[in-house]
């Protein structure tokens, strides 16, 4: 395949003078600090409420202030912190206090917050997870983290204390307040590091991977409540509840094993290769806590450390009363045993006019067996015809038909366990044509018990004019995997014909998929990592929503690199012994593509059409850089098969 000039080290245009200019330019540019790994962490506060740092209400900058229950300097600052918390909220910045001290139990921390009338959430860092990441040296000490998980400020709140034992009558500086205003406005902080005056932070000085005496109440319950209970509770998708000590203790070793292997929470993307709003992962220290607890007798701990039961979202419509609710026409009976089922159900919209979809929510009728769902829009009537030919409710997808069975562009919605309602970016929507049908494609997996499912889908329409959201599809149909090949590789790429902003991405392969990685190379040569899934799992496909929409200029090259395993060692291989596999609609065939939801930055519909044409052109590119025309019955125009 012909290399892009910007990626060729022998590019003759890169002269010595050019290299010198680049070096001077790089030296003059401030180096962006690396991510600190705290955005997206799920922690509980002293009252048991769950907080996702920087992600509680979309992607936001946030501040954390390490406090102490007995340091007089820390306590003296509480009134000022209450005021700053109000200012932060008005600026769209999350604001938290932190108690991180193994000598203080949760009851003491809660009592302290009550006595000092703290008005902002105080996180109880029971295992030192946050302290290990940010490494405070004093209390109080403030940290401000930008939306992209970069630390932009650490240091004092103000100069109220000139030195230990030397307070001023009033502060003459406002470093933390200035940092909050700067990060809210997207501006650099004038003083990113200041010296703090306070009590020395001496907690977690043991140097171990986990606290010495791990118990359920203090260390394990906060992790389980914040990361597991949403799915592991009655009526939810988890196979068993994890709401009490007895329930968690029964599965202690299994929890440590599946979390340690990265199987749970279900998140396949590699950390650090893209920042995602819906990321679900455990910190290394949290994993060490679970492992140590399971291997040391799963102790219950002291009542004073009891974590209050979390307040979870009630089952219902999270965005309010929907404009339209579509339900499967009849229940579908999922047998107790057998192979996984992929089924499509036609949900007529009966809309009398076109609508712009700005929000949606899928509710599985039987969460225990609904593994994931994809929703499509059909304006051809072909889904109805396929449904009429199939004797049971709905019709078979994947194995016996071409995906959903009709020409389409990209899914209007995807649901995976733990996913709630979704709103599209402000001022944008997806067009739903009048008279069209929503086709609900569900992947069912058996759980040993015959189960009936009748899932629902809620739609929210725009109340004022909005622009059409777009899709960018990059993939290849040049897939011919020899039998027994365990590292077959494909590379698809395209150069953007215009500026775009990526909202999310949906990678896709079938059972032979092994790894999936996407990078963007900007016109200046800088590389932007978009996603990396080192261990592909067909059963856990997901929308990966960027914490910050990714803006890419015209001329950016997006590279998609995929590998496949068609050997007998691949236990997911549906062909045993292996046979040669080509690109095709069936899951017994293979695919390799990624679909991005994009915000066009130029001429709206014309730009979307240009993007569609360019992506389709790249799809036809063969491995040697030449092109081939795809038969009409194998790929719908401008569309991705699923």
Verbal overview:
The chain contains twelve helices and 34 strands. The protein is an alpha+beta fold. It has four domains: 159 residues, Glutaredoxin (3-Layer(aba) Sandwich), CATH 3.40.30; 90 residues, no CATH class; 144 residues, Copper type II, ascorbate-dependent monooxygenase, N-terminal domain (Jelly Rolls, Sandwich); 151 residues, Sandwich (Jelly Rolls). Helix 7 crosses helix 10. The N terminus and C terminus are likely disordered.
Topology readout:
Blueprint: H1 16-28, E1 42-44, E2 50-52, E3 62-67, H2 72-76, H3 78-91, E4 94-99, H4 106-115, E5 122-124, H5 129-134, E6 138-139, E7 141-145, E8 151-155, E9 161-163, E10 166-167, H6 175-184, E11 199-200, H7 216-227, H8 245-250, H9 252-260, H10 284-295, E12 324-327, E13 332-334, E14 341-348, E15 355-363, E16 370-378, H11 382-389, E17 395-396, E18 413-415, E19 422-423, E20 428-432, E21 437-444, E22 451-453, E23 456-461, E24 467-468, E25 470-475, E26 480-481, E27 488-495, E28 500-509, E29 513-521, E30 527-533, E31 544-552, E32 557-564, E33 581-582, E34 592-600, H12 605-619
Parallel strand pairs: 3-4, 4-5, 20-24
Antiparallel strand pairs: 1-2, 3-7, 6-11, 7-8, 9-10, 12-23, 13-22, 14-17, 14-21, 15-19, 15-20, 15-23, 16-18, 16-21, 25-34, 26-33, 27-32, 28-31, 28-34, 29-30, 29-32
């Amino acid at each position: 395949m012909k290399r892009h000039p910007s990626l060729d080290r022998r590019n003759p245009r890169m002269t010595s003078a050019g290299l010198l200019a680049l070096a001077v330019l790089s030296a003059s540019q401030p180096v962006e600090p690396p991510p600190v790994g705290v955005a997206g962490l799920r922690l509980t506060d002293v009252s048991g409420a769950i907080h996702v740092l920087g992600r509680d209400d979309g992607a936001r900058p946030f501040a954390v202030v390490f406090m102490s229950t007995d340091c007089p300097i820390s306590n003296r600052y509480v009134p000022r912190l209450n005021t700053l918390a109000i200012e932060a909220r008005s600026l769209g910045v999350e604001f938290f206090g932190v108690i991180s001290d193994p000598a203080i139990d949760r009851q003491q921390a809660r009592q302290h917050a009550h006595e000092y009338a703290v008005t902002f959430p105080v996180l109880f860092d029971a295992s030192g997870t946050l302290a290990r990441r940010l490494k405070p040296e004093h209390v109080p000490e403030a940290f401000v983290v930008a939306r992209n998980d970069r630390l932009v400020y650490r240091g004092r709140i103000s100069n109220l204390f000139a030195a230990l034992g030397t307070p001023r009558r009033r502060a003459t500086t406002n470093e933390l307040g200035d940092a909050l205003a700067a990060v809210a406005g997207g501006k650099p902080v004038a003083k990113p590091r200041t010296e703090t005056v306070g009590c020395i932070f001496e907690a977690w000085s043991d140097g171990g991977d986990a606290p010495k005496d791990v118990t359920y109440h203090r260390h394990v319950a906060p992790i389980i409540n914040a990361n597991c209970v949403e799915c592991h509770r009655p009526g939810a998708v988890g196979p068993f509840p994890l709401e009490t000590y007895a329930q968690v203790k029964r599965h202690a070793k299994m929890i440590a094993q599946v979390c340690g292997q990265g199987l749970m929470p279900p998140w396949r993307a590699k950390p650090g290769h893209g920042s995602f709003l819906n990321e679900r992962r455990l910190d290394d220290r949290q994993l060490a806590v679970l492992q140590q607890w399971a291997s040391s007798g799963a102790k219950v701990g002291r009542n004073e450390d009891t974590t209050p039961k979390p307040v979870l979202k009630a089952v219902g419509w999270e965005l309010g009363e929907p404009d339209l609710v579509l339900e499967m026409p009849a229940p579908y009976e999922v047998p107790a045993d057998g192979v996984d089922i992929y089924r499509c159900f036609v949900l007529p919209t009966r809309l009398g006019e076109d609508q712009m979809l700005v929000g949606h929510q899928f509710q599985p009728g039987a969460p225990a067996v609904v593994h994931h769902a994809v929703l499509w829009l059909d304006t051809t009537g072909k889904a109805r015809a396929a449904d009429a030919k199939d004797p049971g409710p709905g019709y078979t997808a994947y194995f016996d038909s071409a995906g959903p069975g009709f020409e389409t562009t990209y899914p209007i919605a995807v649901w995976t366990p733990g996913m709630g309602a979704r709103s599209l970016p402000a001022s944008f929507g997806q067009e739903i044509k009048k008279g069209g049908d929503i086709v609900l494609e569900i992947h069912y997996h058996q759980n040993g018990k015959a189960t009936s499912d009748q899932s629902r889908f809620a739609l929210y329409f725009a109340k004022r004019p909005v622009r059409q959201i777009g899709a960018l599809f990059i993939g290849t149909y040049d897939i011919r995997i020899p039998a027994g090949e365990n590292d077959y590789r494909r590379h698809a790429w395209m150069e953007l014909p215009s500026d775009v902003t990526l909202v999310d991405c949906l990678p896709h392969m079938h059972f032979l998929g092994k790894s999936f990685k996407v990078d963007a190379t900007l016109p200046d040569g800088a590389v932007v990592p978009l996603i990396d899934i080192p261990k592909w799992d067909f059963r856990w496909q997901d929308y990966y929503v960027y914490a910050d929409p990714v803006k890419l200029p015209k001329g950016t090259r997006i590279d998609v690199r995929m590998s496949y395993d068609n050997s007998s060692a691949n236990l997911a291989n549906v062909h045993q012994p292996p046979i040669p596999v080509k690109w095709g609609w069936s899951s017994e065939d293979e695919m390799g593509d990624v679909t991005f939801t994009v915000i066009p930055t130029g001429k709206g519909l014309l730009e979307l059409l240009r993007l569609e044409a360019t992506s389709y052109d790249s799809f036809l590119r063969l491995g040697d850089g030449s092109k081939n025309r795809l038969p009409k019955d194998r790929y719908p125009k401008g569309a991705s098969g699923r």
